[in-house]
Design goal:
This protein is mainly α. 59% of the residues lie in helices and 5% in strands.
Length: 240
Amino acid sequence: MTALTAGELRAGALLRLLALALAPPTEETRTAVVDLAEALSDDAEIDAHVLAAAFGSVTAETLAADQHRLFGGTVALPPYESSYELDPFRQARVMADVAGFYRAFGADVHGPAAERPDHAGTELEFLGLLAERRVAALDEGDAETADLVREIEDAFLTDHAGRWLPGLFRRLALADPDGPYGALGLVGEQVVAAELVARGLDPTAAHADPAPLTAVEVDELTCAAGDEAVGPLVPRNGRG
């Protein structure tokens, strides 16, 4: 069994930080991003302090305007994985497969954009949820569940999040170089890249030039069975 380390806890917290920073901005979420980023700023490999400073120097109203400019209406930076697939049939398959991961874990997407489970924030929230479940299993000495959750994390990163989130964050850093979301792009790329390296994963990158689309609000990912029991964890077979 892999020993529970501070790194296990930190990785999940960083994923949660990214998901929170992509959520619709409110003063509460802005403050939460700053507080969590500051708490994670002692990591030498991740520039969380840059994100803390960027979100700490603006208001929630400014963040909302920046988010709409970058992701709202007709956008050049679609925050959806399926937008980086040129084949419409592949787009539908991606969304169905992402939703299948959520169902296997006992998690459901709710909110205005529930039909779009492939939103960047939702995928990151799911990875954060998996990390929390794995850490809990390790803490309880449940090696079998911890290993199973790790397999699901690796599969989701390989098949989905790891294929397109690095490119999205890279484009975000370029699109908003002096703004808070540019800082998010910098930190986001570092976090996802570190996860892939730590796990020895090398996903095939998604298409580099997505077509603009009309964006909708971020989804909320919740655990269908509640925080205490997350439902059955089922290995993914026959993915693609």
